[in-house]
Amino acid sequence: MNEAAFDMHVKNLEKDIKALEIALEGGKKYLVGDEVTMADFSVASWLYHIFKYFGDAEMRKTNPNLTAYFEAFAAAPEYKKHFGEPEFAETRLTKAS
To answer: What pTM did the predictor assign?
Structure first.
């Protein structure tokens, strides 16, 4: 494994997560406007993998807006049809994993 590349990707991932957390402040239900858009579908599908591999309890606690946003999408029957039940990491993926 290229450890420098892993570190760089994790650092960028953390920036993206924080940006989404801020964008969803105030209990926003959607990223853009008052209705679901392609932005929501794109982000929600990406979040499936983020929560599965990096969404440990600490990450969910420090990003409550993003966690609520993902949980709302993951609860929808249409989402479950394509992705199944959401999985949350017990421990975050690391270089040693």
So the answer is: 0.89
Question: pLDDT of 28-86, one tens digit each?
Answer: 999 998 998 999 999 999 999 999 999 999 999 999 999 999 999 999 888 889 899 99
Query: Which residue in 48, 39, 85 sits closest to 70, CA to CA?
Result: 48
What are the Cα distances from residue 49, in Å, to 13, 27, 31, 46, 64? 12, 23, 19, 6, 17
